[in-house]
Structure formats: C-alpha cells, structure tokens
Design brief:
Elements: H1 2-16, H2 29-39, H3 45-64, H4 75-95, H5 101-125, H6 136-147, H7 158-184
C-alpha cells in the first residue's frame, strides 16, 4: 500500500506542478501518465489515479484562469483525456514495472506523437471552437500549425515542447524514483 501512496503522491505533484509552468505544452503531465501506467500495479488505479490528478489540476487551473473554463469538457478536452489514457497504456506496455531508460525515452516519444495526432485531429473536428476547414487541406493545416505554432520556429512549437517535456520529465521522474527506491532499500536492484 505504501508504494501506491508514494506513486499517487508523485503523480499528483506532477499534475499540480503545471500551475508553476507557463510554457505551452511544457508540462510533466505526460510523465505522470507514463509513471502511473508503468508502476501502479492495480489494473484500475493505473488509469484512475493519473486521470483524477489531471482533472484536479484542470479544475484548479480553471478556477485560477476563468478563460480556461471554456476549454473544460470541449471536444479537445475529451481528446486530451483520451490521449492521456493511451499514454497510461503506453507506460504499462512499453515501460512496465522494471523501467529501462531506452523504454522510458521510447514511451515519451510515442506518447507525444499519439497526443499530437489525437488532439490536433480534435481541434480540426471541433464544431464549436474549430476554425479549420472540414476537409483534408484543413486537417493538414491544423497539423502543420501544431508543428510550428509560433512563427515557424520548431523550438517553440507545441509538438517540440511536448516531446521535450514528455521525454525529459519522464527520464527525471523515473530516475529520481529509482534513486529513492535504492536509498530506501539498498538491496534492491537498479531498474534504470
């Protein structure tokens, strides 16, 4: 039970840390989903805890920034949560209970691509907030805008920020948790 409490606390902390980060898509929430998917042993809790942590963070952000409230429960909101559930599954399948660095990095990359494809498709399909034409050129334009969102600079795109944060925060959280486990139980074998 202690391990579930520790992992849940880390996931909640990662979710709430979004409140301190102001760079678009540069958030540790993808790492939280991968972490929960990999290390929570309960088939149900590995999905429930990260989703609840994401939702609590979203509610707090909506209270602090009322303009964010318009986003809650929109088509893109649902797409983010679907992407998040898939990210949990990626953590379960690719990383598992004995994390290896190459698997953590691969899962971070794959979860970024999945998030990009699903959320940009939802932004294109959104009947209320969408502003892309509902045809193939409109969909391609939507994906292009997601790749190079700010003045064509790849280093400031939503995709690049997501990639860096998913991989970087995942490597960080798994490494820190592994170091913590070794400090608490020195006889435990290293998992990274």
């Amino acid at each position: 039970m202690r391990k579930i409490g520790e992992i849940s606390a880390i996931i909640l902390l990662l979710s709430l840390s979004r409140l301190a980060i102001s760079i678009p898509n540069m958030e540790p929430i993808g790492a939280a989903a991968l972490f929960g998917g990999a290390l929570l042993s309960s088939r149900y809790l590995k999905f429930i805890i990260p989703i609840l942590a994401l939702f609590v963070g979203d509610l707090i952000i909506a209270m602090l920034a009322p303009s964010y409230s318009a986003h809650l429960f929109s088509v893109t909101f649902v797409a983010v949560y679907i992407s998040f559930l898939i990210t949990v599954l990626i953590g379960k399948r690719m990383i598992g209970a004995k994390p290896k660095m190459k698997n953590i990095i691969g899962a971070g990359v794959l979860s970024t691509v999945v998030f990009f494809l699903i959320t940009n498709f939802a932004a294109w399909a959104d009947p209320i907030h969408g502003f892309y034409s509902k045809d193939l050129p409109g969909l391609l334009q939507c994906y292009a805008m997601g790749l190079a969102f700010t003045k064509g600079n790849f280093l400031s795109s939503f995709f690049f920020n997501s990639l860096i944060s998913n991989v970087g925060f995942s490597v960080l959280v798994f490494s820190l948790y592994s170091a913590y486990q070794r400090a608490v139980s020195p006889s435990q074998e290293a998992v990274l």
